[in-house]
Amino acid sequence: MKKSFICGALMLIYSASSFAADWPSGYSKCADQGSTCKVGTSSRQVSYGIKDKWVVKTFAGDILCDTSTFGSDPYPGVTKKCAVGPLSSTTPTPTPTPTPTPTPAPAPAANATKEAAPSTGWAGQGGGTTGGAAAPASAIYLVNTGSQLVAALKAQGNNPKIIKLQGTINMAAADNGGPFTSATDEGLRLQIKPGSNTTLIGVGNDARLVNGNIVLNGVQNVIVRNLTIQNPCSLYPVWDPNDGSSGNWNSEYDGITISNSRNVWVDHNVFTDGSITDDKLPVENGKVKQCHDGALDVKNGSDYVTVSNNRFELHQKNNLIGSSDSKTTDDGHLTVTFHNNHFLNVAERGPRVRFGKVHLYNNYFEGSRSHAVYPNHYSIGVAYKAKIISQNNAFDIAGATSCPQVVTNPGSSSKTGAITDAGSLLNGAALNLSTKCSFSNQVGWSVPYSVSPMAASAVKASVLSNAGTGKITVN
After folding, report:
1. Tens digit of pLDDT for each residue in 184-225?
2. Which end of the chain has less Cβ packing within 10 Å, N or C?
């Protein structure tokens, strides 16, 4: 998220406490963002902010707790709070906190290249996620071909690096060896394997990755932002006669695969089947010869992952968290946050969760149960030992009338999980998960970071204006 620097009468105040506060000491909360703060007939100072970042102004009467009232936003993209100070109060000033080691100055608001993952998701935990922010100038690359991308990744290994992608990068283009010639060749050249301490970020609104699978395997501290990723379509799907009652075609490659990795932030991307939608695939053995796998999957004990502000569109099996029921070592891991994402005409797995401690908030799901190519089967899959906390999500799914049509267990009925929900809406009405869906609410954990989700009624407009590429500036 971009940081605003406020001066003059608009004062940005940082608490000296070691714990984040949402208003100055001695103030009392009067409203959440978007609601009315009743200040009273006497003028009093009112703070607007969250997490030790506030704007303070003086008001009387009833005011709207919103950026339009205070004239600046101290923490863009996060729902803020208002609090009133005591009568005849003076603007609070922070107590200086000694810092033995100065922290690097944050990236300018006009440039997202070195931004770190915000604290409002799992990627902000476990030491945080900075990607290649520490890269020297010699380890910042601008690439516009697949061969240049591969060379930049190899040159730096696990050293901090920032790779800016420009235009369309096709891993099967002539510069990178041309069309894939075999299943082995496809596997070797289609997979893009960043090391630790990497930022992959698109320039402008048209940076595109084609015929590529970003594989994060056994790495940490990686950021992927502002890319349109066309979910790879394998030339060599495999027929599995034991998949289902009559067999199925399966493919191996995702848009992004996160395996045995930690501290990953995937933000402001678009994942799509693009021009190769499932209706264009051939039918063999009586089944569509499926060339796509997942859009973004998280598995094999990965932790501290945030997936935010992305648009997932036109895809069948979208997000798998946990690879199989038998992978019991995943239990206690797979800590993932999905927030402010747009799921557009995604058939299922938004996400499907096994084992993981997954937080879903302020996501917008849009689709139809009768869509011609990607009919919505369900959105959230509560599979074996899932531990899901859902807050203020909005489901606009034509033809869905009750909770089980958007939240379900897609696996064995004897192997289910737990989920709680607060504030979510299905086609404008309360989702009523606790009474309409028959899942345990014993998730066994609480969100370890502070976040105040916006009301579900505001999610559609917010997500549609902010999710996807071209919404951040990359210099």
Report:
1. 999 999 999 999 999 999 999 999 999 999 999 999 999 999
2. C
